[in-house]
Each structure stands twice: as C-alpha cells, then as structure tokens.
Amino acid sequence: MTAPLGLENKAQRGIFITYMGLWVSYGLLNELAKRQSVRFNSACAVVIQSLLKLVLASYMYLTSDTQVTEPLATRIRFMLTQAQEHRKLLLLYFIPSGLYVIYDVLSYINLRAFDAATYFLLLQFRLVVTGVLHQAMFSKRLNRNQWVSLGVTTMGCAIKTLGTQDPNGSAKLGAHGNAPTLMAYGLLLVQMLSSTFAGVYNEVLLKKQASIPVNLQNVFMYIDSIVCTMGMLALGLTGQTAQEALTITNFSVLLSPYVLPMVLIMSFIGVVTSLFLKQLDSIRKAIASALELVFLPLLSSVLFGQPITLYTAAAVCFVGFGVYIYSLPVEATGLPQYAKVASDEQVQDESDSVDTTVAVNESSSTSKSA
C-alpha cells in the first residue's frame, strides 16, 4: 500500500509532522498572545529570528559537519574557508532571500488594498502556482493525481477562508474603503510568485548543490536574509525605519512568555524547512501548510472554545480528500507485461508465434495492396 503523501520512511514522516506541528504551535501561541492583548513589532521579531537561525545553523554545522575533536577556533576558520570557497552559492541565496523580502513588503501593501478575507482567499492559489513552478524548474511533470490533489486542497483552503468573510458585505473593500484596483491584483500576483518561486528555488539549490552540507547552505541563507531585512528597514519599505523597529522597548516585548516561544519556534522552523525541501519537495510543503490551515481551527476549538463552523468542516473534508488523492498510485500506461511460460510449453508457444507472424505478414501485405 502506498504511504500517505509518499512519506516512505520514518525520517520523511518525522520531518513532515515536525514541520506541520511547529507551524500549528506557532498559530496557537499567536492566538493566545492576541487573547492576552500582547502586541509586538513584527520587523523586530524577524531580525531576531534571522539572527537566531544563523546562530543555530552555524552551531549545527560546527558540531555535525566538522571534526568535533578540533578546537572551536579551527572549526570556525574552516567554516569561513568553506564560505569563501562557495561564495558563488552565497550570492545565489540572495535570490530566495530577496524574494522573501519582496513578499513581506507586498504583504504590507496588499493588506491595505484588500480586506483580510479576500487577501488570504486569493493567496490559497499558491498551491497551484507551486505545482507549475516545481514542474518547470525541475523539468519533471506532475502526475494526474498530484494535480487533482492540489486543486482539491486549494478548494479546501478557499472554503476555510470564505468562512472568515464579513457577512455585512464589506469583503470587496480594502482597508481604506475602496475597491481593489487592477494594479492591486497585479501586486498580489507578484507577491504569490515571489513566495512560491523563492521556495522552489531554495529547493533547487539544496538538491542540486547536494555536495555542500545543508547546514552551511542554511548559514548562507540566513546571512543573506539579515542583509536583505536590514536593507528593507533602512529604506523604510515596511512603513518603519530600523531606528523605529529596533528599539529596547520592542526587544523587551519579545522576551515576554507569550512571544518568546513564538520567536524560538520560528527559528527552528527555518532549519526544519531546509530539511523538508531537501528530503521532500515544495509540493508537499504546500500541502503541509494547507493541513495546518485546517488543524489550527480544530485545535483552537478545543483549547480556546472557538466554534467549528460548517466552512471549517467542509475544508477538513476537502483537504483530507486531497491528501488521499495525492497518495493514490497512478496506473502504469506502458506496454503490457507477459509471464514466462514453462519449458515444456515453449515448443508449442514458438509454433503459435510462427503462425501469428505469418498471419500478421499476410494482413500487412493485404493492407498495402489495398
């Protein structure tokens, strides 16, 4: 029997469950922080998370990919030497890092052009875009079941998002009370492409540079992320400058018991994401995000007493069915396979094959003369 989502071994299943569990935990903690009226600066949190990711990736590289018996200074020099040797890859990681910065900037802009429900509804089509980009960049066609699964899962995410729309009919208006313009829809498309292309391109780098340790590639990714994030703050692209975001007050809020676990979880998610893309792919990463979208309200109903709506129940059915379709084997369409006959039947089989050949030749000559 085919394993669900093609998770054939314990390592793949462990990575998938860990990735999804971390995101669900982050969502639950975020809901708890909102209920406690705890507010924090997202730009400050992103900078701290990037620094923690860099420290974690460096630690994992120094302890897993170098000689542990060597002095720490020697191992650090070796890591710097490797970074110098693979500086081209370090520069290539500016592509996904920069695209993620573009995604963050456009999310700030688009949330003001659209209402939240419409914004998140349209973002669900990232699943289909991920399939298209993954197929193009890896020159590997997705099978029928995978496409149907992505479509059904997208429908489930859309249904879940529809359940959050404003019943008073304001869903078509942005934050300023105006209908979104054609330019706004174009920017939303750019935002979707930035996120999906960054994820797929990150997978390309991890798999096509397999000789370079994942931990070192993570170091490159987070160095570039810090540079891009600081550049974004320096230019004020998120509506605030570095001086406004990186204050003592904002840092102290991140140390609160409601926010600090969220920062730590996001730091671990960065490392787990690289392992996910290395061992699995962007398609199943998108499906894991869809599963998180339906598991989160179910757990919120248990922990916070939130009611389960009909939209949520329908979304669970659609996403679950999408995962089931993805796991179905695809029927082979190649040539039929024939079983070998016993040795005492081979003489009769050869005689039959000669008669068949003669019949075929006669039929062929008849068709040609016609």
Helix/strand layout:
Elements: H1 10-35, H2 42-64, H3 72-85, H4 87-92, H5 94-113, H6 116-123, H7 126-137, H8 144-162, H9 182-208, H10 214-234, H11 242-245, H12 248-254, H13 260-279, H14 282-303, H15 310-327, H16 346-369
Helix pairs in contact: 1-13, 1-14, 2-10, 2-13, 5-9, 5-10, 6-8, 7-8, 7-9, 7-14, 8-14, 8-15, 14-15
Report on the architecture of this protein.
This protein is an all-alpha fold and 370 residues long. The protein has 2 domains: 118 residues, no CATH class; 174 residues, no CATH class. The chain has 16 helices and no strands. The longest helix is centred in the middle third of the chain and has 27 residues. The radius of gyration is 27 Å and the shape is globular. The two termini are 51 Å apart. The C terminus is likely disordered. GO terms for molecular function: pyrimidine nucleotide-sugar transmembrane transporter activity. It comes from Phytophthora cactorum.
Number of helices: 16
Describe the biggest sheet?
Answer: none
Q: Please tell me the total number of domains.
A: 2
In whole angstroms, the N-to-C terminal distance is 51 Å
Shape: globular
Percentage of residues in DSSP E strands: under 5%
SSE succession: HHHHHHHHHHHHHHHH
Low-confidence stretches: 332-343, 356-370
Q: How many beta-strand segments? A: 0
State the secondary-structure class: mainly alpha
- Amount of helix: over 70%
Mean pLDDT rating: 81
Task: Evaluate the radius of gyration.
Answer: 27 Å
TL;DR of this structure?
With 370 residues, the protein is an all-alpha fold.
